[in-house]
Amino acid sequence: MEHRYSYYTLIIIFCISLGITAVQVNSQIEMEQTSSSNTSYPFTLTDGLGRNVTFTEEPQKVISIAPSATEIIFAVGAGDKVIAVDFSSNYPNETASLPKVNNFPSIDLEALLVLNPDLVFGAGITSNEDVAAMENQGIQVFILAPFTITEVLDDIGNVGQILNHVTEASTLKDSIQSRLDSVLVNTSSLSYRPKVYLEFASDPLYTFGKGTYGHDLIELAGGINIAENATDLYPLVDNEFVITSNPDIILYSKGSWTTTNSSSISARVGWGAITAVKNGMIFPINEDWVSRGGPRIIDGLEAIHSRVQEVLRDKESSLVDTSSSTKINTDIIPFQTFNIFGILPILAVIVFRRLHQL
To answer: Over the stretch 101-158, which tens digit does the pLDDT of each residue have?
Structure first.
C-alpha cells in the first residue's frame, strides 16, 4: 500500500514539475519575442528598383508619394510618422488632413525640401529621375514595387522594419496570410476554373495581364484570366477578344470617376452572347483593391473568390466527387496546438481517483 502511495505521489510531483518547466519555457519565449520585436539599426534592404538602401536610424518624418505605400504605413501603425502624402492617397481617412505633395508628372521637389522628411516612400510609378533628384538633395528614398500578394507581404515586413513597427507588421502579415490560406484551401483541388474578365478601363478597354495584381488575384481566387497570354502587363483589348474569350465572370473596377455599370456592359455590341452577361455575372470591384499593392489587396482576392464560388455552385454537380471515401470536408475544425496546461488537470483527476480507490 505504501509503495502505491509513493508511486502516485511521484506522478503528482512529476506533473507539477512539468507544469513549472512549461511556464518557464513560455516566459523565456515571450522575453525573446519582445526583445526581437524592435528594429536594430543600421541595416540594409533592397527596394523595388533593386537599390540597396541603408537605414542608420529610425525615421521620424516620413512622406509617402504612393497610395499603396501610404496604406501600408498606416496599417502597420506608423501613421503618426507621416507628415505628407500624394494627392491620390485617400485611405485611410487620416490622410485627408495631411499636407499633399504633387508626384505627377514629376515630384514637387521644392515642397519636399520645405517639409524636410527623413524618408520618402515611392512606388513602381516613381521614375528613376525623381528618385535621383530626391537623393541628390539628400532625401532618402525607398521604393515599394510589388506585383503579387507575396511581394506585398514582403513590403509590409520591410516597412515595419524600416519604421520600427516589426510586431505590428508581423501581425498584419499573419492576418493577410491566414485569409489567403482560407481561399487557397477552397481552390487547391478545383476541377473547373471559370474564365474571368477583369476590366480596369472601359474607353478603350484595358485589362490585366501576367505580372500584375489583377492576374495574380484571378488565379489565386480560382479563376482563369482571359488575358493570361497577353504580352503586355495591361493589355488593350477589343470587343471581339472579350466576346471570343466568353468569360463566365465579368468584373469592372469601380472608383469615384467610374461611369461603367452592369447595364452599360450588357448593352455593348455583341456582348449579349457572353456567358457572364447571359447569367448576370457582372459585378463591380473596388479599383483600389485590385490596383494598389497594399493590405487591402486581400479584400480584392476575397471579392473575386466569392464570385468564382457563385459560378462553382452552379456547376457543383460536375465538381463534387460523389464517392464518400474521397470527399473532402472543408468544414473540419483546424487542429489546435497542444497545450500542456490543458492536460495537467486531467492527469491530476485520474491520479486522485486511483488513490481514492485504494
So the answer is: 999 888 999 999 999 999 999 999 899 999 999 999 999 999 999 989 999 999 999 9
Q: How far is CA 197 from CA 126, 226, 275, in A?
A: 28, 6, 11
Number of structural domains, the chain? 2
Of 190, 205, 212, 229, give the one whose Cα is nearest residue 308: 190
The Cα 93–Cα 254 span in angstroms is: 19
Instruction: Give the CATH number, domain containing residue 262.
Output: 3.40.50.1980
Backbone angles phi, psi at 43, to 5 degrees: -155, 165
Helices (H), 87-127: 109-115
CB-based contacts of 285-290 (< 8 A; 24+ apart in sequence): 285/198, 285/251, 285/252, 285/253, 285/254, 286/253, 286/254, 286/255, 287/200, 287/253, 287/254, 287/255, 287/258, 288/67, 288/91, 288/255, 290/198, 290/200, 290/208, 290/213, 290/214, 290/217, 290/253
Under a CB-based contact definition with an 8 Å cutoff, are residues 128 and 48 in contact? Answer: no
Range of the domain at 136: 43-179
